[in-house]
Write a structure and sequence with these properties.
This protein is α+β, with helices and mostly antiparallel strands and 157 residues long. It has 5 helices and 4 strands, in the order ββαββαααα. A hairpin with a 2-residue loop joins strand 1 and strand 2. The N and C termini lie far apart (79 Å).
């Protein structure tokens, strides 16, 4: 009689979990945890992407998978809510030729840029666009000016 002995089957090994990731409506993988972490660090995958770990019943966010790295967003990246456009060019465009709305074209606000050009062609419209561009210039200096996607311009250079 053998008490307290366990028989271990050498063919049964525990392999690390494999992770399938859904990124931009496409499934990728399966990856090991190390591979997934490398892809997160390189920016090819996001912690907000959906992930399915083999053996689990459902999909979850990749960032919630135990062992995934937490990479803070780079300053000035789209992830931290700031624009990739620079303040200095917008500042100079608004200051020197702001009545033509060129600074608005620079940040992707083409419709309002076109409106400013059309208004500047009339005498009353030129007064309106002069005030409008001055307000934009002040907003740029104060750091409150936003690009087309609503992200603030935060970097001067």
């Amino acid at each position: 009689m053998r008490v307290g002995c366990a028989v271990v089957d050498p063919t049964m090994t525990t392999s690390p979990a494999r992770i399938t990731v859904r990124h931009r409506d496409q499934n990728y993988g399966p990856y090991s945890l190390e591979e997934a972490n490398r892809l997160i660090v390189s920016g090819q995958l996001s912690r907000d992407d959906l992930a399915w770990v083999e053996g689990t019943p459902s999909w979850t966010r990749l960032g919630l998978v135990p062992g995934t790295v937490d990479v803070p967003p780079m300053p000035g990246s789209a992830e931290d809510g700031s624009s990739d456009r620079l303040i200095l060019p917008a500042f100079l465009l608004a200051f020197f030729i702001g009545v033509f709305g060129v600074h608005r074209f620079y940040v992707g606000k083409t419709t309002s840029g076109i409106v400013m050009i059309v208004l500047t062609c009339t005498l009353i419209g030129a007064v309106v666009t002069a005030i409008w561009s001055m307000i934009d210039w002040i907003m740029i200096v104060c750091g409150a000016f936003e690009d087309r996607e609503g992200r603030r311009l935060t970097r001067w250079t």
